[in-house]
Specification:
The chain is an alpha+beta fold. The protein has a single domain, classed as minor pseudopilin epsh fold. 39% of the residues lie in helices and 17% in strands. The protein contains 4 helices and 3 strands. Strands 2-1-3 form a 3-stranded antiparallel beta sheet. A hairpin with a 5-residue loop joins strand 1 and strand 2. Helix 2 packs across helix 3. 25% of the residues are buried.
Length: 122
C-alpha cells in the first residue's frame, strides 16, 4: 500500500509542482534577489547551481526527479529521487535523509519527459 501511495500520490504532487514552476524562458527574470543570494551562498553562483542540478538530473538511473530543496537547516541543496518519490517523503520513499527538504524546483527525468527529442541522451 505505501508503495502505491508513493507512486500515485508522489506522481500527482510532483507533476502539480512541476507545472506550477514551468514558464517560458522569456517569462522569467530569474530568481528573486533573496533566492539568488541563497543560491550563491550554497553553490557559488547561479551557473554553478545549474551545473549541479543538471548533473543530478543526468545521474538519475532509470526514472526519477532532480530537485532543488530547502533543507530543514535552512540551506539549499540539490538532490534526486527515484521514480515518483520526492524530498518531502524521505526516508520512507527511499530518499536519503540528507536529500530531505521542501522542493523549490523539480525536473522530471522520466523517459516520457525527454525521449522523443533527446532519445537516451539526457
Amino acid at each position: 500500500m505505501a508503495k502505491a501511495v508513493i507512486n500515485q500520490g508522489g506522481g500527482a504532487l510532483n507533476h502539480a509542482l512541476f507545472w506550477k514552476w514551468m514558464t517560458g524562458p522569456t517569462d522569467s527574470n530569474g530568481p528573486s534577489a533573496e533566492l539568488k543570494g541563497a543560491i550563491e551562498g550554497a553553490f557559488g553562483s547561479v551557473d554553478d547551481c545549474k551545473a549541479a542540478f543538471n548533473a543530478a538530473a543526468a545521474g538519475v538511473f532509470g526514472s526519477g526527479w532532480a530537485w532543488l530543496v530547502l533543507k530543514p537547516d535552512g540551506k539549499l541543496a540539490i538532490t534526486s529521487t527515484p521514480n515518483q518519490a520526492n524530498p518531502l517523503m524521505a526516508p520512507a520513499a527511499g530518499v536519503a535523509p540528507d536529500g530531505a527538504g521542501i522542493p523549490i524546483l523539480g525536473l522530471d527525468v522520466w523517459e516520457h519527459a525527454y525521449y522523443l527529442k533527446y532519445q537516451n541522451k539526457r
